[in-house]
Specification:
CATH architecture: 2-Layer Sandwich
CATH superfamily: RelE-like
Structural class: alpha+beta
Radius of gyration: 13 Å
Number of helices: 2
Strand order of the largest sheet: 1-5-4-3-2
Distance between the termini: 35 Å
Helix content: 25-40%
């Protein structure tokens, strides 16, 4: 069963910010490669939503996109709500 994907506005804003950074600092090719990894991970989650690790936040799971980026999501019924994208190198992420 494929789950319906719902993208949170916060996730969209963070994703656009990362893509903008990658394109400016590296290249458009690098930005597109990152976007492809995000889409691939979301596609995998549609079929295997419990693949992500549980977090300390109730009913929130996370999965790595790259070694520097982690995506957070919640499963609600037959939907996956993509909540946020974090840079794993930032202090605010570490606990």
């Amino acid at each position: 069963m494929a789950y319906e994907i719902i993208i949170n506005k916060r996730f969209t804003n963070k994703l656009l910010s990362v893509l903008d950074y990658l394109e400016k600092e590296w290249s458009k090719k690098v930005a597109l490669a990152f976007l492809s990894k995000v889409y691939t991970r979301i596609y995998i989650l549609q079929s295997h939503p419990y693949i992500g690790s549980l977090t300390s936040i109730t009913n929130v799971r996370s999965t790595l996109i790259t070694k520097h980026n982690r995506m957070f999501y919640r499963i609600v019924g037959n939907k996956i709500v993509i909540l946020n994208l974090y840079d794993t190198r930032k202090k605010e992420f570490r606990r």
